[in-house]
Design brief:
This protein has 18 helices and 23 strands. It has a nine-stranded mixed beta sheet, sandwiched between helices. A seven-stranded parallel beta sheet has the order 5-2-6-1-7-10-11, with helices on both faces. It has a three-stranded mixed beta sheet with strand order 16-17-20, covered by helices on one side. Helix 14 crosses helix 15. Bound molecules: glutamine (GLN). The site of glutamine has 10 residues, from strand 19.
Length: about 525
């Protein structure tokens, strides 16, 4: 009998139902019942990874320790489970086809006709089983992106069908997430879309074991009975998922509905302990009962789309709860920010974050934001491009290096204070070629960073091509911008600070990727603390 059990999460009726949050919440409950759990996301698009996708298309690109550029759902998985994910946790159709086509070119298929079934489906199944075969997990939850019925989902659904058959009863189950819409005119919840989407799934040979029903109103006994009867699912396996005020409520809501109990029963497993969620609920208590409020500005060029800065917003939530304060984040479009309106736009803000990004759109606004924070002693956190903008601002306005810039924005700048990394110079492909994943960084003592981390050696995740140009380090340091964190092997500057400012820190890495509910990121916690003090 296979050791690892598999749970597949499919979606029906519409996209954006929050499969990732349901998968993460279930995983949380199973984890706190004593099981080791991980979650994998299968994305049916042809991009090899979302690293080449514009944030407007697909929200933030999340980065793992081992340097995978992944779907933002992996961020939720890590934040909920407090455990890192890896390359194996996100697989796209592009990656599947790339592997199969490479094998075909090598002649591995020995003259056979290469087809979706069995070659593509075999590769999908192999990718699903990789995590289970590590022996590290009792349960692997695999979320299938997209909506059942989409052409691109078909090979995935077929792979799930085959795996359920191969793994046998009680070893693999399917949870189908659907929408039960409310018709205001009829004052009724409607089950028909769910019936149709289950029918769609069944046509592919997969019957859901559990239905999780997203709804704006409670589903009553009658609706539960109807859904059970027409969708061929036990009544206790009809799980209501009502709109929640925060995603962090969902594990408790799922527990109340008994999702973890039905799952364990169907997998023939017994909880090793009662899922108490003590630390989780302590976070929720702080999160929901803040002792005050502060306003933080988030300056970026993708602010129209909140998903573009998902991990930053969640890291702020974690840090706010830790400081027992409600943080209102004011999104400020960097393209609309200038010398004339910066004072007005930043009125009432206790702290400023300048966001990561690529390309020159909006960078002059970001530089204005840095200048305002620096001159007005407002706590400032610059992340990746935000840190690079802080160096440029300082070079221009304190060192008087006219037109100082990054060579990303101006190749012929006379003062390239931010320049392309040496090992990037020969790189031509865009996908998966940045400096990615976790790298060590050594902190100087008696600095803001050291005070926040409480240690001298840290490990943070990166996603960039350009770097602080060490040729300017003497000038910058003498004028007061100090490199307080450096990669011990390569000497790349990872952190800059202004010691004569209440809290001014720029980081070349992305601290937001490592913040979790149970482990809020120290830099965000300290930044929020400084912002409270500044209020
Ligand atoms: N565009 C910058 C670089 O590539 C910053 C990247 C980022 O903010 N993630 O170095």
């Amino acid at each position: 009998m296979p050791k690892t059990k598999y749970i597949f999460v499919t979606g029906g009726v519409t996209s954006s139902l929050g499969k990732g949050i349901i998968a993460a919440s279930l995983a949380k409950l199973l984890q706190s019942s004593g099981f080791s759990v991980t979650i994998q996301k299968l994305d049916p698009y042809i991009n090899v990874d979302p690293g080449t996708l514009n944030p407007y298309e697909h929200g933030e690109c999340f980065v793992t320790d081992d340097g995978a550029e992944t779907d933002l759902d992996l961020g939720h998985y890590e934040r909920f489970l407090n455990m890192p994910t890896s390359q194996a946790n996100n697989v796209t159709t592009g990656r599947i086809y790339q592997t199969v086509i490479n094998k075909e070119r090598r002649g591995d298929y020995l003259g056979k006709t290469v087809q979706i079934i069995p070659h593509i489906t075999n590769e999908i199944k192999r990718r699903i089983k990789i995590l289970g075969e590590t022996g590290d997990f009792d349960i692997v939850i695999t979320e299938i992106g997209g909506t059942v019925g989409d052409i691109e989902s078909l090979p995935y659904v077929e792979s799930v069908r085959q795996l359920q058959w191969e793994l046998g009863e009680h070893n693999a189950i399917v949870i189908h997430l659907t929408l039960v819409p409310y018709l205001a005119a009829a004052k009724e919840l409607k089950t028909k879309p769910t019936q149709h989407s289950v029918k769609e799934l069944m046509q592919s040979g997969v019957s859901p074991d559990i239905l999780v029903c997203r709804t704006e109103h409670h589903i009553n006994e009658g609706i539960r009975r109807k859904l059970a009867l027409f969708c061929n699912v036990e009544k206790e396996a009809i799980i209501e998922s009502i709109d929640a005020s925060t995603i962090y409520d969902v594990p408790n809501l799922m527990r109340k509905e008994g999702l973890d109990k039905v799952v364990l029963k169907k997998l023939n497993l017994k909880a090793k302990e009662e899922p108490t969620l003590i630390a989780w609920n302590k976070f929720l208590e702080h999160y929901k009962n803040p002792k005050g409020t502060i306003n933080i500005g988030l300056v970026g060029k993708y602010v129209e789309l909140q998903d573009a800065y998902k991990s930053i917003l969640e890291a702020i939530n974690h840090a706010g709860a830790q400081n027992e304060i409600k943080v209102n984040v004011h999104s400020i479009h960097s393209e609309e920010l200038n010398k004339e309106n910066v004072t007005e736009k930043f009125k009432g803000l206790s702290g400023i974050i300048v966001a990561p990004g690529f390309g020159d759109r909006g960078i002059e606004g970001k530089i204005e934001a840095v200048k305002f924070a620096r001159e007005n002693n407002i706590p400032f956190l610059g992340i990746c491009l935000g840190m690079q903008m802080a160096v440029i601002e300082f070079a221009r306005n304190i060192l008087n290096l006219e037109n100082a810039n990054s060579t990303e924005m101006n190749l012929s700048t006379s003062h390239p204070v931010i320049d392309l990394m040496e090992d990037q110079k020969m790189v031509t492909d865009k996908g998966g070629t940045m400096r990615l994943g976790a790298w060590e960084c050594k902190l100087k003592k008696n600095t803001k960073a050291y005070k926040a981390y409480g240690t001298t050696l840290i490990n943070e995740r990166h996603r960039h091509r350009y770097e602080y140009n060490n040729e300017y380090s003497e000038q910058l340091t003498n004028a007061g911008l100090i490199a307080t964190g450096v990669n011990p092997k390569t000497d790349l500057v990872e952190i800059i600070e202004l010691p004569n400012h209440p809290w001014f820190v720029g980081v070349q890495y992305h601290p937001e990727y490592k913040s979790t509910v149970l482990n809020p990121h120290p830099l965000f916690v300290d930044f929020i603390k400084a912002s409270i003090e500044n209020k």
